[in-house]
Amino acid sequence: MSERNLATLETPALLLDEARMQNNIDHMRGRMQALGVSFRPHVKTNKSIDVSRRLMDTSEGPITVSTLREADYFASHGVKDILYAVCIAPNKLAHVSRLLQDGVQLSLILDSMEAAQMLADAAPNMDRSLDVLIEIDSDGHRSGLVPDAPELTEIACFLDASGINVKGVLTHAGGSYDCRSVEAIRAMAEQERLAAVTAANRLRAAGLACPVVSVGSTPTALFAEHLEGVTEVRAGVFVFFDLVMAGLNVCRTDDIAISVLGTVIGHQAAKGWTIIDAGWMAMSRDRGTSGQVTDQGYGLVCDREGRPLEGFILVGANQEHGIIAHRSADPSISPQLAVGDQVRILPNHACSTAAQYAEYNVLNKSNQVVAVWPRFNGW
Ligand SMILES: Cc1ncc(COP(=O)(O)O)c(C=O)c1O
């Protein structure tokens, strides 16, 4: 690698604090062990084999992905056990077929008879038998069948009769992101668990083995009191954490492992603004903290070494310009930064900020760039 250090890095650039990341991983793995479940990390946050190798049980997985492109990328690095956790659509079956041919143990999800019918029609032309989980809606957040939906057993029995392997059920309590207290997250974790276990028991009562009961979001994985009946947990954003997670009290700002390095390019002194070269293309448009108790604008401002500059946030973002100001909007309070000074911005949402970059600049505890890890984007 050619020499890189923070002072000479061209900005905006994505930084990854390796020690914080490892700490987050160790903490989550400890939770999984204590809860007695296996771990199928969601790799959509990191989209990097270098990060995911630290997450996986073995070099072959298991992992969860949100796109088939992710499945391709991780398969090309030797990962075999992959769950594609977005309901399957007909125009993706040729791609699924290629992955199966390449020896990937790919599992799919669905929540409708139409999709089940489509898979049944496609199954005879596939090289290998298809593995499917049925998506359960545990919180009214987005897709899935409610656990007591009559269609649940109808779909499962239809798949089974069509020679498709019904591996089990899956749910994701994305509603945990809207919880307003740790107690509410705990209750959401129990709601998520109960929905999945109830659905699995219905499938078993209908004569299906249903070996997999898969749940997980970062908040519920970290606050579940027990996971009786659950076999695996999927969590992803915990690897880096972000301001949304900190706002939920799921982590501290000190746990956030990624940040954007930006450089001061000017001032509007009368307004109390410091302008940097990191706007919404650098941070993403995500404003996930806007509905939380503390709105962090487009990100929380830290000095180059990562220490928060108390009270300063990115109050505005144009495509390539970010505006730093005090959260009080008092123009007389300035962070005292000169043109050329660097700052680090902690992101609202790790997945969307990381998605703006092709690589991680990996930092050691002395803030030296010790590695550059590629990541990929797109579909
Ligand atoms: C189906 C599914 N499983 C697991 C996760 C991981 O959740 P989190 O990013 O909160 O860890 C997600 C995230 O969106 C998801 O969509």
Chain-wise SSE layout:
Layout: E1 13-17, H1 18-35, E2 38-39, H2 49-55, E3 63-65, H3 68-76, E4 81-84, H4 93-101, E5 105-110, H5 113-122, E6 131-136, H6 150-161, E7 165-171, H7 182-205, E8 212-215, H8 218-223, E9 232-233, H9 243-247, E10 258-268, E11 273-276, H10 280-283, E12 300-303, E13 308-317, E14 322-326, E15 342-346, H11 350-354, E16 359-363, E17 369-374
Parallel strand pairs: 1-16, 2-9, 3-4, 4-5, 5-6, 6-7, 7-8, 8-9
Antiparallel strand pairs: 1-10, 10-11, 10-15, 11-14, 12-13, 12-15, 13-14, 16-17
Helix pairs in contact: 5-6
The structure holds pyridoxal-5'-phosphate.
Pyridoxal-5'-phosphate binds at residues 42, 64, 85, 172, 174, 216-218, 234-238.
Cofactors, ions, other ligands: pyridoxal-5'-phosphate
Given as residue ranges, the uncertain stretches (5+ residues, pLDDT < 50) are none
CATH topology of the largest domain: TIM Barrel
What is the CATH architecture annotation of the largest domain? Alpha-Beta Barrel
Overall geometric form = elongated
Tally the helices: 11
CATH H level, superfamily name of the largest domain: Alanine racemase
Number of strands: 17
Give helix and strand order, one letter per element, not per position: EHEHEHEHEHEHEHEHEHEEHEEEEHEE
Measured by DSSP, the beta-strand proportion falls in: 15-25%
Gyration radius over CA: 22 Å
Q: Class of the largest domain in CATH? A: Alpha Beta
What is the SS-derived class? alpha/beta
Sequence of strands across the biggest β-sheet = 2-9-8-7-6-5-4-3
Structurally, the number of domains stands at 2
Distance between the termini: 28 Å
Mean pLDDT: 97
The helix content, as a percent range, equals 25-40%
